[in-house]
Amino acid sequence: MPYNVRLRYANLDLYVNSQYDEVGNRTEITSSLGAHITMERDLLGQVSRMQAQRDGGSDASTANSTPWAAQMTYNAPGQEIERLLPGDVVSEWHYDDAGRPEQHSVKTGGRESRKRRYEWNVNYRLKSMVNELTGHKTQYNYDDFGNLIGETNPFDKIFRMADDVGNLYSSGHKKDRTYSPGGRLLEFEGTSYSYDEEGNLVEKIEPDGTHWRYKYYGNGMMSKVVRPDGKEVMFTYDPLGRRIEKVFQDRLASQLQLRCAAGHRRARRTDRANPVASFFVLVHIPFILPSRREHLA
C-alpha cells in the first residue's frame, strides 16, 4: 500500500512531503513552497522519467510554464546508458564487457562538452581517467592490499598511505596523524579528538581552542551537540531508531511526521516545558512498512 512521509520544519511552518509505492520507491515529492516532483519507474524500480515544476497557484505564468523533465535509459543489467535533459543535453555512458564504466560523454546541442575515458586494472580498480577533450590524464596508485594511496595529474600529486592496520596518513613517513591502538583518530593538523569507553566521539578541540562536545543515548545514538558558543542542538528518535526531531535554542529546527497505512496508530506528544518542541511517534505497530531514513541535519 502506498504511503507518505512528511518532513516538517515547525519553526518556519514549512514541510516536504514524499509519496512512496508499495515496495518503498519514492514516486512523488511536494513541498509547501510549491515544489512538485514526480518520478516514473521501470519494472526494476529505476527512475525512467523525472518531472519537476512549481505549483504556481494564482501565478498564471508559473502555472503554465513548461516543467523540467529528464528521461533515463538503462541496459539489460540495469546500468544507465543515456540521460536526456532540457536544453538538448544528452549524457551517455558506455561500459566494457565486465560492466565497468568505459566512457562518459555529455553533448549540448550536438557539441561535446565532456568526454572521459576510464581504464581499469585486472582487480577492478580504476587505473586512470583521460579527459579526451584536453588530453589530460589522471593516474591512480594502490598498495598491495588494494587501498588507494595516490593520484597523479598534470597539475598536482595527492598521496595517501595506510599502515598495517588500515590507519590513513597523507605522507609516506606516517607521522602526520596520531591514532589510538584501536584505530581512533586522536590528532590531525592540530585538532585533537576524544572518545568515550564505547568509542563514540565526545570532544573535538581545534587548534584555536574551539571546543565541540557530543552526547549520546545509551544505545549509542547522538542525543546532543554542544557548540563552541555553548548552545546545544538536541535530537530525538522514534522507537525504530529514526530521527524525528532536531531542537536548537528551544526551537524545533526540523520534524519528521510519518503517515501510516491502515492499522497503524499515530500518537502526538508535546513537551510541556517547551510547547514548541512537539513531535510524532508510532505506537502499536503490527508490522513495519518499507521506509527510507531522512537526514534531518
UniProtKB/TrEMBL annotation:
Keyword Repeat part of the UniProt annotation: yes
Stored Pfam families: TEN_YD-shell
Record-linked InterPro entries: T6SS_VgrG/RHS, TEN-like_YD-shell, YD
Lineage top rank: taxon: Bacteria
Keywords from the UniProt entry: Repeat
Coiled coil: none
Gene3D superfamilies: RHS repeat-associated core
Residues in Teneurin-like YD-shell domain copies: 88-268
Protein's UniProt name: Teneurin-like YD-shell domain-containing protein
